[in-house]
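Crash report, auto-generated. Payload:
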Amino acid sequence: MTASPPAENVLSVSELSKAYGSTVAVDKISFAVGRNEIVGLLGPNGAGKTTTIDMILGVLEPTSGSIQIDGVDLRKNRSRALGCTNFAAVYAPVPGNLTVYQNLRIFGMIYGVRDLKERIEELLEQFDLTRFRDVKCGVLSSGEQTRVSLAKAMLNRPRLLLLDEPTASLDPSVAQEVRDQIREFVARTHGGVLWTSHNMYEVEEVCRRVLFLSKGKVLLEGDPRTLPREHGKQTLEELFIALAREPLVALEAS
Amino acid sequence: MDMTRTSAIILRQVYLVRGSVSRLVPLFVWVGVDMILWGFITRYLNSVSSSGFNFVPAMLGAVLLWDFFIRVMQGITMAFFEDVWSRNFLNFFATPLQISEYLSGLVVSSIATSSIGLMVMLLLATGVFGLSFFVYGAMLAPFILILFLVGIALGIFAVALVLRLGPASEWFIWPIPAVLSPFAGVFYPLTTLPHWMRLISYFLPPSYVFESMRAILATRTMSVSSLFWGGGLAVLYVLLACWFFQRTYRHAVRTGLIARYSAETVS
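Recovered output after restart:
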């Protein structure tokens, strides 16, 4: 038996939908995240971003469509697909009743990280958490907790990293460091990142490509640096506001 | 099944218990209090009873085994509640961790915590009140095994219920052993019960254990077939509980309950 060649895309989403009764939260969206690529998933509140991320994380079953992570079908081989994924989200902090080290050890075991002790020390150093090693996560500041979440998210050197507003509670200086670390992570591991954020400056700086989601559909896709001008706007923030308020008008005007 | 992932769930529980007096103390304090209370009650009953019947193995032994059953069940529910209280479902279930590995972790954690309680009870009951399990002979092993299996089944059923109904349903879980105890015949023969209650007792494996215990004390004999019934039912309940949890989990993934688990989002 020969090993299958590595997939070009670390994430391939095809015709993905999620409906709750008659309410359609995500409506047949298709997109991909390639290696070495950071893709921004943008959209107003309720657009379907977190629903999409939850489906990719395997905690929400799609109504239809398929998700492939590094060439592995999530529905058919959930455990293997999620083994090469990880995530950090503001609404999912690591348990506050365990110390930083204990949390990293437990999640490292769950993800089957090799040379776990060395990997934990490396991440403690990288995210400036060494002095908090034996501190319970619940007593850390929100910024420190975010750094622990990011350290957890990188434990298994995931091929696909999902970041739901990763810098939401960080001050500008730490947020900048975190953005640099994520870029460095991509360059080193050749993984891909799906990133949601409401900070358009951050998205322009970090993402090579963005997807605009509105009412569960992908409205626009393109380079965040050129996309605003292509649609008659000065900045990404302006385009975001226009799409969020009047999606169809904004598209027709462009 | 990956043993490392199961070990992670167990290690999490070790960290929590080791680092918290409020988690460590209840493992042995309540069972210890029960042994002391029932130890003195049985001593008193022995002193006032003219029948010569020894209440120590009949009542203190029964309390010990019933407490063990409760500890097994609570060992599972408490480990699960840690994830409820720390809102950890998304972190755990968005990983390669499988349901069988998660449940195995809860069961092994429960074996460890209930064993601590059992040791404390045995020390007090035998050391202070002279309870001897030699009267039950080799039958003690199936007694403990059946109660252990039912405790596991009930624990898994209870956590599935909380997963389905939300964190506020936690209060449903605590009184379950108390509700079952009149039907299980912990302190009295099933013949004491009215017919309708006895019908329910026949579906409860612990009732076979406590009936067998009393039979051994009274006649030195017991019905092995009835113990097999109890054992068979216990195994069936474990399988049913695992099926129920799996089904509840599937429902939670379909409806998004896992990702948004809180009292407010569950009807």
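Post-recovery validation: The interface with chain B takes residues 20, 50-51, 54, 57-61, 78-80, 82-83, 85, 87, 89, 91-99, 102, 105-107, 109-112, 152 of chain A (CB under 8 Å).
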